[in-house]
Amino acid sequence: MLQRALCCTFVGLGALCRAAQVPIVSDLGPQPSDTTSVGEVPEQGRLLSIDKPHYATGGLPAEEDRDPLVDWRLDDPPNVNSTGHLIFETVGSLLQHWPNTRMRNGHNIVPGTIPTGTLLYHGTWQPELPPGPDWAAFDPEHSVIFCGGLLKDGRCWHLTLMTTRPLNVVYFDGTSAAKLPIGTLDSQDIVTWGDVRPDWSFDEWSRITTLCDWGREYNIDGFVRMEMSFEVMLCNFTSGLRVVSFPNIVDPVIIRNASTTFPIPFEVMYAGSRHNRYPGETRVRLDLSGLVSFYDTELVPSLIPARFGKERWDHRLLNISTEDAVRVKTRLEEALSRPADGSSGVDWQALIRVVVDRYSEHLQVVQYLLNFTDANSYEPDSVLDYAIKTQVQLRHMLMPYIGVNVTPRSIGANVNRTASGELDWARPVYKLCATTHTDRLKDCTMTASERLLLDAVQGTMREICRVVTKMWGLGVLGGVDQFMNIDREPDVEMIQNMMKTWREDIDELMAWLDWNVWVKCLPECGPEEMCYLTTWPTGFPPPHERARIPRPGKGGHVSYLPSQSMPDSAPAPTATPVPWRDGMADDEVAEDWQRPQPRCIRRIHPYDLGVRVAASHF
User: Fold this and answer.
1) Strand pairing of 167-172 and 222-226?
2) What secondary structure letter does DSSP report for 501?
3) pLDDT tier at 251 (50, 70, 90 boundaries)?
4) Which residue blocks in 194-252 are alpha helix, DSSP H?
5) How far is it, in rounded angstroms, from Cα 545 to Cα 617?
6) C-alpha distances in Å from residue 518, one per residue of 87, 310, 511, 580
7) Helices (H) and strands (E) in the chain, counts
8) HEC readout, 516-578
9) Is 307 exposed, middle or buried (0-12, 13-18, 19+ CB in 10 A)?
């Protein structure tokens, strides 16, 4: 127990440690190798390279008996196959509606729990508990759209449940409840069937029953997903749950007064928007020590060439190898079987949030300052003023890491983009900035998932600090740092060139990081509006003609989901129903449905999604 306490105490990160519960070890994983070419799959390990200071998932080079700054060159960017920044951003976005609506194709699977005392909601056409697996919502606005099936005869039963113990769940990130063949269901497919099956996107009944059958061995009560809002696929409505109420409510889809405007779909999306930003859906507690990520290049090397050259929107799991799919499922099963006290105790979500909170606004202000003025302007006072303001922001970010002995050999030296030799004096700042948050964590015992997270934070910090230190160093050499001795008039032409370099550096860094906190409606929406990203199913094309519609019976009829099933006397439908029974037109395809962009929409009557119609289809 004393050993376990030493780890969190020694590293000085008490606020980031939930409990001191693991001993210290020295093994930091596989040694790096520089034999992997761009786009190739490494023979072992995660595309590591001692000559490239970035691990592909973001790790740092091991300390050796040599020049301590040899691996801290300011002109050495990340490996093009690195994924640490993607792990950092997707883990930092877990259970948040906004980023998982923007980047729909999830890449993380995480064990978690739903705490005791949590309310869950379920809509159905009959006053009976589901006899088997079925769906429940975290927000009543979400569940009521299902309460009448396709009938409009007043049978709208709304069940409210309360958890009587923590429910064990598995969370799939992304818009993982969207029935789309373009990647939203890929991670579930791999756990459910062992491979990706795009044409099975509407086979929800087979999906939930197979998942629940698999999860029974690991005491899994359900699976958390997201569409318009968050939901849980419950495996048993009588295990760990108590009925709070089960009234026959007024069906919100049936509007008896023609002049009444009560569009349920808008309210569902508004309910989901309450979980847009950090901390997101707080009624699910994730255990990141059991994280499984498809961006882990050691676990899933077959996806490295599949992703190469593609934008993040287009990342999916379609080309995963059979061996990697088996390895992913095995890693998940190991995480679900691991003792509860087998992790380091580090609060990884908090650590990632600390980094985002500290750097996101500073970086955004720097980008604003550099884009506010024309670097080609021939007004010396204006150019110098914005250069000094930008340098102040850069120094703020590096302030804890600039020692009194950190000084350049000369002011006014070369400030070209590739002048790395002129910036050797700034390497100690770069290294201290990049390692402060994580260096002592290396002494903690960690799960494989936690080592992946450590690599991701280290790699992300490394690139932030590399770019910011380089920009700050150029500013010092350019004579615009007010804390350094400046004994000459600034060279305006040199400063103009420096600001062009700055702009390129900050734009490339922010595009590489791609943090969701920078995606917002500008200008801000008014009091009758909300900021919105095109959300499935509104504005999406209809199902692909090859979509596999579940047909369990010999009659050729489509099977309904349990909560949407019909009385025996009702005619069988010919297609799987949309998630609500009335509301938005289903023939308008939003122009940005593939790459959603933020826009303000009306929150109250007259409602307007601001959909610009496109002609594209699957």
Assistant:
1) parallel
2) H
3) confident
4) 204-215
5) 11
6) 17, 21, 10, 32
7) 14, 14
8) HHHCCCCCCCCCCEEEECCCCCCCCCCCCCCCCCCCCCCCCCCCCCHHHCCCCCCCCCCCCCC
9) buried
Separation between Cα atoms, residue 551 and residue 560, nearest integer Å: 10
DSSP for 141-197? HHHGGGTTTT--SS--EEEEEEESSPEEEEEE-SSTT---SSSTTHHHHHHHHSS--
How far, CA to CA in Å, does 563 sit from each of 135, 247, 369, 477, 559? 7, 15, 54, 67, 11
Query: What confidence tier does 25 reach under pLDDT thresholds 50, 70, 90?
Result: very low
CA distance 552 to 40: 43
- 351 — alpha (psi -120 to 50), left (phi > 0) or beta? alpha
Cβ atoms of residues 74 and 297 within 8 Å: no
- 330-341 as b/e, with b when 16 or more CB fall inside 10 Å? ebbbebbebeee
- Under DSSP, the state recorded for 17 is B
d(CA 424, CA 583): 62
Average pLDDT, the chain: 83
Judge whether 24 and 445 are in contact, CB under 8 Å: yes
Tokens in use for 574?
């010919």
Task: Go through 174-186 and write b for each residue having 16 or more CB atoms within 10 A of its CB, e for each that does not.
Answer: bbbbbbbbbbbbb
**Residues 553, 93: Cα–Cα separation, whole Å:** 41
Is residue 242's pLDDT more than 70? yes
516, 522, 528, 531: CA torsion to nearest 10? -20
Residue 551: predicted pLDDT: 42
Q: Which runs of E-coded beta strand occur in 291-336? A: 292-293
Q: How far apart are CA 495 and CA 493, in angstroms?
A: 5
Among the listed residues 151, 111, 506, 610, the one whose alpha carbon sits nearest the alpha carbon of residue 339: 111
Residues 435, 432: Cα–Cα separation, whole Å: 5
Tell me the three state secondary structure of residue 108. strand
Q: Please give the structure tokens belonging to residue 179.
A: 């029935």
State the pLDDT at residue 553.
43
Distance CA 413, CA 43 (A): 44
Distance between CA atoms of 239 and 230, rounded to whole angstroms? 20
Is the pLDDT reported for residue 474 higher than 60?
yes
Task: Give 60's contacts (C-beta < 8 A, 6+ positions apart).
Answer: 53, 71, 434, 435, 438, 458, 459, 462
